[in-house]
Design goal:
With about 625 residues, the chain is mainly α. It folds into four domains: about 110 residues, no CATH class; about 140 residues, Cytochrome Bc1 Complex, Chain D, domain 2 (Orthogonal Bundle), CATH 1.10.760.10; about 90 residues; about 250 residues. Strands 1-2 form a two-stranded antiparallel ribbon. About 45% of the residues are buried.
Length: about 625
């Protein structure tokens, strides 16, 4: 068994089609590399290694049967490869055939074998120390007491022969699936991005800072061809910097510096490839899978970049979103493959335009401005509701005011914790993230509707208002209702701010410093605006405050219902039926029957609730007049 066999796949084949395709590419990659150690001159040279190759190809055949029909007949291609291995074909023939099938699987099923977000070397180092150093050694040399007890021994990441053929993509597969027959477990509990950070970090261990510095000089002199992270993920050290005299220095720079630079353009390849996979499933007659893949293409491939694109070219976000929604609606409505494919190609062209815009919209300035606008926009929305609550609470006494302050302060605290936990939050699958956001938003809408009912009741008259103050907000339970209102209003916006700021940091490629600076500047502006609004509010009498508070609560409830249902539509829980082109994102207005219908129904209900006291008074007046 060669060193590379320690990074092959485990045989757990109950995954989704996209994951099955990824596992199959890893098996083919492994066979292409390790078959050479099993057969020589038409005879088996290592029976154990040969049996392993045969076993993995059998596992690959099982995976292939679960894949939807694509542009390549994978089972037939694998059967031909198995026949070659069974006939002890030469390593060159088997390797070339395996890699060709692997290439076609990647193209047919849109397999992503590269990071989709910037890498962090420090994070990779931390993860290596926590998870790998015990067996592989702090320096990667695998010379530890634990390593000496393991059979087969862990790989030595400082060995040039091991790293010549090993690639970060193969290491990522090993980290994801574990290694059958060894002590190497699966690290699937780590986020996808952390596994990529770890997979790339092990390639830095055999190089020192001096070699990286000398490699940087070669790069400045254009002696080294710059490679994207995706290209670096797919090759071993032996394929890097061909023809460069100072090869080790060049490799040191390509492994220790280049992957962590963020000069390359934002890639929307995940979104484009996801649409292609949806088409493949649709051609196979699986509309349910096609709809899921189209939704995931948007959530995982485009949505994380929306905020950066919105700052660069605002109109493009709406156009791309509309394209994805149309694709999903056509799949739901039973449109033909030709019709859906036409819309897919149009949407992919929009993604190309968006990618070009993002490519010119990088840097600290964009991150600063984007963060400032996001925090201002979301902060003002929360501040409006808080001012209304405080204006009402002041008329109930100091305990009610304290409860409102307790609510928004708690929400800010939880928001800060959400920021620190945002790596895990962002790592959630897109649909689950949208479900969480949609649920929070609809809950906030429900709280606002309840608050509106109380304020409308308070407007019935002084006697009724006094009763409301005493029975509803006067007791401890009522004051805690104010706390819940304040918490829900602020945390709903804080949740969105965290998602948006993380996306801006991701696309800006500058880390979080510029993002946090923009957020801090927005915070200062918000404080000033809030103080100005507070001073204005003190000059207004109580009756107008109650009246306008009720109106604004209604408006915000309608906005939240639209945004909440939109999130659930993006998560695939609520169906999508397009309706016209009306779209005002900040007001939660989207061109679908579901969102507009729910907002209209809520608006009618709120109007009826507001007019009900007047109808009752008119009825009483009529009875009195009749008598």
């Amino acid at each position: 068994m060669t060193g590379l066999s320690l990074l092959v796949l485990a045989t757990a084949f109950a995954g989704e089609p996209a994951e099955d395709a990824r596992r199959l590419t890893a098996i083919l990659d492994y066979v292409a590399a390790d078959y050479r150690g099993a057969v020589a001159d038409g005879h088996v040279s290592d029976q154990g290694e040969y049996d392993e190759q045969v076993g993995f190809l059998a596992d690959g055949a099982t995976l292939a049967k679960n894949l939807p029909t694509g542009t390549v007949d994978v089972p037939a291609a694998l059967a031909a490869l198995q026949s070659e291995v069974g006939g002890y074909a030469s390593a060159d023939v088997v390797s070339a055939h395996a890699l060709e099938i692997r290439r076609r699987v990647i193209e047919s099923y849109g397999v992503v074998l590269a990071p989709t977000a910037p890498l962090t070397r420090d994070q990779g180092a931390r993860l290596y120390e926590e998870n790998c150093a015990m067996c592989h050694g702090a320096d990667g040399g695998a010379d530890t007491p634990t390593a000496k007890t393991l059979t087969p021994p862990p790989r030595n990441f400082r060995d040039p022969e091991v790293m010549t053929e090993l690639s970060p993509a193969r290491a990522f597969n090993g980290l994801t699936d574990g290694v059958k027959g060894t002590a190497m477990p699966s690290f699937e509990a780590l986020t996808t991005q952390d596994r990529w950070n770890l997979a790339f970090y092990i390639f830095t261990l055999r190089h020192d800072a001096d070699a990286e510095a000398r490699g940087a000089e070669l790069a400045d002199e254009k002696q080294i061809e710059r490679m994207s992270t995706a290209d670096l993920a797919g090759v071993g050290d032996g394929s890097l910097a061909p023809g460069v005299a100072a090869h080790d220095d060049a490799v040191a720079w390509l492994r220790g510096v280049a992957p962590y630079q963020t000069e390359e353009r934002v890639s929307l390849a995940v979104a484009r490839d996801g649409l292609d996979r949806a088409l493949t499933a649709l051609r196979a007659g699986d509309r349910v899978e096609a709809r899921r893949l189209a939704g995931e293409a948007y959530l995982a491939g485009f949505e994380p970049h929306e905020e950066s694109l919105r700052q660069a070219v605002p109109g493009q976000v709406a156009r791309v979103e509309a394209g994805f929604l149309t694709v999903r609606a056509q799949i739901d409505d039973g449109a033909s493959v030709a019709v859906v494919e036409s819309e897919v190609r149009r949407t992919q062209a929009l993604l190309d335009d968006a990618e070009a815009s993002l490519g010119g919209a990088r840097g600290a300035k964009l991150a600063f401005v984007g963060a400032l606008l996001v925090v201002l926009r979301e902060g003002l929305e929360a501040a409006l509701l808080l001012l209304l609550l405080l204006g009402y609470a002041e008329r109930q006494g100091a305990p009610a005011v304290r409860q409102v302050h307790a609510g928004w302060i708690a929400a800010l605290g939880v928001g800060v914790l959400t920021w620190f936990a945002s790596d895990s939050l962002i790592a959630l699958a897109g649909a689950r993230r949208e479900l969480l956001e949609g649920g929070i938003t609809l809950l906030a809408a429900g709280v606002l509707v309840t608050a509106h009912h109380w304020l409308v009741s308070a407007a019935e008259g002084r006697r009724r208002a006094a009763h409301i103050r005493e029975q509803v907000f006067g007791g401890a339970a009522g004051r805690w209702t104010l706390t819940a209102l304040a918490f829900g209003a602020v945390y709903r916006e804080a949740f969105e701010v965290v998602l948006f700021l993380q996306a801006i940091a991701l696309d800006g490629g500058t880390g979080t410093s510029a993002v946090l600076a923009g957020a801090a500047a927005a915070g200062v502006l918000l404080v000033g605006l809030v103080f100005a609004m507070l001073r204005l509010g003190r000059r207004v009498q109580a009756a107008p405050i109650l009246k306008w508070a009720g109106i604004l609560l209604c408006v915000m409830a309608v906005v939240f219902v639209g945004k909440g249902l939109r999130s659930l539509q993006e998560a695939g829980v609520v169906p999508i039926h397009s309706f016209g082109a009306l779209r005002v994102g900040i007001l939660g207005v989207f061109p679908t029957v579901e969102t507009l219908g729910a907002q209209l129904a809520l608006t009618l209900g709120l109007v009826a609730s507001a007019w009900r006291p007047r109808w009752r008074r008119d009825e009483v007046d009529s009875r009195v007049a009749a008598k």
